[in-house]
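User: Here's a structure from my thesis project, written as structure tokens. My advisor, Dr. K., wants to see whether a designed sequence matches the one we expressed. Can you design one independently, without my sequence as a hint?
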């Protein structure tokens, strides 16, 4: 689980990128509080062969990246 709430882009994407490079997880959850971060992480996920699910909770977003 990556908690990137309160951070502006590109930091949340960089955090996800580092984790994917380090451990190549089958599933990764990410918390963000910005629609821009959701869009940028989604773009990263698709280009790196991950499906992404987005769940909005109280103004925050929980992203679940799953390896295709």
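Assistant: Designed independently from the structure alone:
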């Amino acid at each position: 689980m990556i908690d990137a709430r309160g951070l502006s882009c590109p930091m949340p994407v960089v955090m996800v990128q580092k984790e994917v490079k380090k451990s190549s997880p089958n599933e990764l959850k990410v918390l963000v509080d910005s629609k821009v971060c959701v869009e940028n992480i989604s773009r990263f996920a698709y280009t790196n062969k991950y499906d992404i699910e987005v769940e909005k909770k109280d103004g925050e977003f929980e992203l679940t990246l799953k390896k295709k």
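When you compare it with your expressed construct, this may help: The two ends are 19 Å apart (CA to CA).
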